[in-house]
Amino acid sequence: MASTKSVLSRSSRPTRFPRLTRLLALAAGGLLLAACSGPGGEQKGEEAAQNQPADGALRVAVISHGTAGDAFWNVVKNGAEAAGRDLGVQVEYNSDGDPGNQAKLIDNAVAQDVGGLVVSMANPTALRTSIQNAVNAGIPVITINSGDEQSAEFGALTHVGQNETIAGENAGSKFKELGKSKLLCVIHEAGNIGQNQRCDGAREGFGSDVQTLQVDINNPADVESRIRGAVQTDPAIDAVLALNSQVAARAVTAIQAAGSAAEVATFDLNSDVVAAIKSGDVLFAVDQQQYLQGYLPVSLLKLYRDNANVVGGGKPVLTGPDLVEKDDVDRIGQFVERGTR
């Protein structure tokens, strides 16, 4: 069977633009100079100051549910570390796909009295106690990527990421616009609340026949077999929505093996997906611009500590979705190559 790389491997390296991180640093600096805070912000700022004085280097722990070497989370890490360099913040990135282990990483960061926490919440229930303990210890927390509905409840300052339901709606609407009649939405990680929200949103946006398929991303051969079986069993399926690039690659291979006319779209960008959009193997990608999910929280935590700024007004700060299609993939692909999209 073809590997992910062999299915989605045709990519070229485009000309690089000026550094996105420099522009974001300037934007963060402008916000710092222009900001003003009310009584609530002043109180929270005083709490943050109990951990680390404003005249010292801020230390931020970024703890995600990604796995080592994952292309998506590498971009988040790149964003966080770039913000650290640009703003003089000490950033420590750790990740673990197991919710229990991720909670332990949060507990360790709290024990080390970090000045701020950035946490992704694919499994909010498993992380609730650890995050609330951090908040109770006076450590400001910003959640990212998943769990936006639980973020404020757990005491986080704000959430940075895309709204998964809105992103799913956009994908479903795009398939509908393209004239598709039956959509298969492939969930690859059991217990990940965001993936169910994506498929629920796709159902709302598509407005007609949508079914879901549960697979295990840790068993690529089974992923391919199940998708092939689904499109063979139901020839009416003419659209497949993958929720990550690895599943998209397997979906392309499965559809070709089944002789199906279904077409694939996916969530998230990497160089393989860029190449697949260029070749026509993938129709479009839903890009949540995860570089911002690393960069912005570090910036916001520094602004919070130094100027008591709170961003979002109780609502998430959205980093997407942005649909990337064939007509704009060349422009965006160059940023994927350099690790900022």
UniProtKB/TrEMBL annotation:
Any GO MF annotation of the entry: carbohydrate binding
InterPro entries for the chain: Bact_Solute-Bind_Prot2, Peripla_BP_I, SBP_2_dom
GO cellular component term of the entry, any: outer membrane-bounded periplasmic space
Pfam families recorded: Peripla_BP_4
Domain of life: Bacteria
Compartment(s): Cell envelope
Domain Periplasmic binding protein: 61-303
Family classification: Belongs to the bacterial solute-binding protein 2 family.
Name recorded for this polypeptide: Monosaccharide ABC transporter substrate-binding protein, CUT2 family
